[in-house]
Amino acid sequence: MPLPPLSPEQLVKPRHFELRMSLIFGTLFISLGTHLPYFPLWLQAKGFHAEQIAVILAAPMFLRVVTTPLLTTLADRARDRANVYVALVAASLLLSAGYFLTPTYAMVLAVSLALTVVWTPHSPIADSLALSGVRRFGSNYASMRKWGSICYLCANVAGGFILAATGPQAVPVIIVLALGAALVAGLLAPRMGRPRKASPLSAAEIQHAAPSLFNAYFLYFTFGVGIITASHAFLYGFVSIYWKSIGISDSVVGLLWAWGVVSEVCMFLFFNRIFASVSVVKVMVIAAVGSIVRWIIFPLVWPLGLGVAGFFAVQSLHSVSVAMVLIGLQRMIAETVSEERTGAAQGIAYFFNGFFMAAVTLASGPLYDRLGVDGFLVMIPIAIAGLVLIGLASRSAPKRPIRGGDERSLVDETRQTVAGK
Q: What is the pTM of this model?
């Protein structure tokens, strides 16, 4: 499907395009790097029990699976996506102030639900702006996006030291300040006009192209990816609370989170040298096995006396259980989905990942309440289920890929999915 031509205005590269996008990515990920590891600690400090924490974390995940594609579609149709980005960041800043209200369960849940609607689209819209620069002007996506990962790491580490000095009550303050910085950066966002192709989460494109993607290989593979990813829900929701419960300081908790991200980035950097000739199914099998091993080892670290060093070692498996899943999914789409349907493929994968992650997060609260760290053992059969689905996918895999490609570029572009995550 040919792309529509660029207008004369779109052919003009905005001044300091790469610098301005780097600033957007950097400020965007500071708040994310604070929210994922430390928001559960703030909830616990406010007196919420594990099941309430699970609902507060999971309910927004269910909601954003529906709302994010709608808002990214709105951004595609707007006169300029940067204006939508600024409006969403401003709304996020305003709503995040709701965490300073009396923190009742109903209030915090309501604020979290409203906030996720306007917060989650920041990253895909920023990616859309950056990738327009890549296509139109030959900009380097990785050189811009790396500042998001750097700032995410810094937020993990700095947040731990701040909380060690002030306590969890600093979490909403950091989030508000970070969103304020993101708003300033957003006002400097380069104006790119409408995209020539819908964003990866376009609801309209998903509706148009999804039927052709419902083949056994694609469905088994994306279901497997979603379930392997969801096996990390217990980690994301309750590992900070667990580490604090055994006496690990906030500063070390921040370093442990950061180490997981460092190991993930290292896999992106060295993947081609190690796994370039490995089939995508084998890559995903390795990732699933890495997840299983991670959940077996995690509850044993402290009882066996391995201490903080043991947790750093287990966090290194983030490079396998997370990074290889991200890379494997993108490789599968690149090898088996035609270019005009890649947006729909990304959107369907996003739906599966989000839905299963939300479901397991919701279950993680009662698990932690009853089992504590042994709740990680329940993640083992979940990861095994993902492994079985990948095995079923391998039986219906196409004999040859649609096209070849520069896998280094592919690996660079999968970095957009890093952080919480």
A: 0.85
